[in-house]
């Protein structure tokens, strides 16, 4: 069984290219992986990085969290820009096609589960994907309230797949990261707690300390 590595991942929401670059610059020397929150104003009631974006030169890896309709179209256009593509299981029924397309481009692929979506919806594909992202809020905005009832879903998935990368996103702060860690998650996305902090390095360090990193 592979060793599960724990990782803190800042999430970036941006309406324009300069905002995107500024937020990436805040964290690029502090972490190895950054999440880009892509929203089309339809799948969720917010817009973010829904433009022909460019990423500044840096050493970070990027994952795209696609909160959009028609993720297949985005993948074809933008796959070269990122390392991992995370598709909401509720946004498309073409699971196998998405997996095959992303893997054919030598990128990592994962599915995202909204709070109301059971693991059973993607269970048959768990051996073919690189990670699962469990939403611990209803998606779309920074600062949404953490849903403690999602801890059972995380634990259920960890029991099913001891060596799978399980990511959590939503309401992850110094008050909640210990809960999702103990439930079985190993990748921790934090948006407003990090990006809106007066001391971004301090916020990241506080989360790492709780994880024992």
Q: Would you write up a description of this structure?
A:
The chain has 213 residues and is α/β, with parallel strands linked by helices. It has one domain (7-211): Aldolase class I (TIM Barrel), CATH 3.20.20.70. Helix content is 29%, strand content 23%. It is built from seven helices and nine strands; from the N terminus they run βαβββαβαββαβαβαα. An eight-stranded parallel beta barrel has the order 1-2-4-5-6-7-8-9, surrounded by six helices. The model has no long low-confidence stretch (mean pLDDT 95).
Key attributes of the depicted protein:
213 residues; 7 helices; eight-stranded parallel β-barrel; single chain; alpha/beta
Give a quick rundown of the structure.
This protein is an alpha/beta fold. It has helices spanning 17-27, 71-78, 95-104, 151-160, 177-183, 192-195, 200-211; strands at 7-12, 33-40, 47-48, 61-67, 84-88, 108-113, 131-135, 165-169, 187-190.
